[in-house]
Amino acid sequence: MTIDTSARTDGTTRAEGTARTPANIADLVGDAESFLAEVWGNRTATFTCEPARGLLSMDGVWRELDCGSLVAPYFGILRQDATPTVSGVCETRIVQTKPRPGYAKPAAVRELVASGQVFLLRQLEDWNAGLGILVDALRGECRAEVGADAYLCAAGSAGVPAHVDGAHALVVQLDGRARWVVGEGEGESAVETVLDAGGVLYVPAGRVRQVAPDGTDTLHLVISVQQPTVRDLAELALAQFLKGSAAAQIAGRHHFGSPAEKVAWLRTELRAHLAGHDRGALAEQAVRLRQHEGRA
Asked: Which pTM does this prediction carry?
């Protein structure tokens, strides 16, 4: 995988002797080219990025909750299957004389967190300026759909249950300490890692992962990076084929052919379509679609 350093601007250049919150992938992992060439998609790895703690703090999470502006879908409580819900923690408020549902109930959220539930802040890139800058940079550098969620767990809770998804994950420990267990594939032992505040963990796509507090309240950030999948490329190529001249021509006479003849026609024409396709252009279009999804 290559990195697009042209996505960086003078505004994301580190001033000598100063610390700032991370604004690109190199800030999180150091040598971005080596990371993407040797680590990405191959194995878990840990890094240190102390300035990342400035992206969001535990006190900041409670302030966001108490200020009364959190509204669904930007928050939730995790179920046992690691999916979020707002059941029991949201209310309807009157805003400019109109009822507006989905606002967070601070007391209810605090009670559930104290009882061992996980509080989730979703799509932080939409409303946290620092994370918005970082996510925008990662979209360009990784050529992918990127999003950021934060998880707050009380000490002694079970944390986030084991789960797996199709996205690569860059985990940033923002506050406290957490113990991660990541599956390394069939026939291989799981890797256990303890992250202190300022620690960064990379988890390749498709690996089972779970996390629990390690003796403290803990807040961690998960930056999900979803590149175009084979299915994305297949659906895009097929959609273009169906809009092409061959498909338009057969539409008026397909009823004259037998099923076997139709299969033979499809095999020939689809093979020709794929053989003549600009693979680079197809990949670029799939990337643009993924990046657009990340902004929805």
From this structure: 0.79
